[in-house]
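Risk register update: the risk of archive-format incompatibility is retired. Evidence:
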Amino acid sequence: MGAADLVPGVSGGTIALISGVYKELLDSINAVSWSNLKQFKTAGFKGVWKQLNGPFLLALFGGILSSILLFSRVLEWLLINEPIGLWSFFFGLLVASILFLIQTELQFNLSAILALFLGAIVSYFITQLTSVSNEVPLWYLFLAGFIGISAMILPGLSGAYILFVMGVYQTVVSNVRQAQDLLMHFSQEQFIQVTSVLGVFILGILVGIKVFAKFLSWLLNRYPKKSIAVLIGLMLGALNKVWPWQNPLPKASEEAPEITVAVLPQHFEGGSPEIGTAIFLMLLGFAMLFLLEKSKALFKK
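Archived output:
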């Protein structure tokens, strides 16, 4: 989930959904409440830890954090130097996820099909948004964290892309890198700057994930089949943004953000389309879903 959330266009929520931990993730986040924490005096640490589903949350968010720290530089390098290969892998994974969920979760009735198309349309239009801000005050970072985490736990909607749209993606990634550098070369001035930026951003994430998880759980409990159909639709609508071959459209001005449009490989203007590499990595991403499913079945046994 952490690696997926770092890539603008890919959602960690997709990984949670296809790996079968999505519902447990939402329920566990909702369990973190003041009423449960107040039981510490009567139930003790062990009782509260169990009530909060602590082992699950620790393993999951520990994995997300470790992935972000380990792969932020690698994924940034791949986005710049090997974009076709990176997008091809995630495109294959996303297509396999959609087909798998349609086969296993989708009910083929009118309301579910309409819900699927609604999700696809919403997701598609979100991927067409462009960056709206170059200013990054602290209050805006809080808002970006709040909205970004909401997208990160929604399959198909990329939290990283939402941060890109809001104009804070580079700021956040840069400060994560600086936080890593502080471990080797400590600077008080840099420490204050990094902790203020990331602290406010993380606060927005914590507030946003709590609010949004409760809303999503309510939807999944009240309208389970329609909600799943919308979630699959969100993934479907995001495919165009993960398509490996994108051409930039002419800019209205020098300051305007770059807008791209998906094209066929033969119309790609960014150099070699690397079709062989792209197909191989698409198939690898496609196969990754079945490896996830097989490992999930093995763990259940």
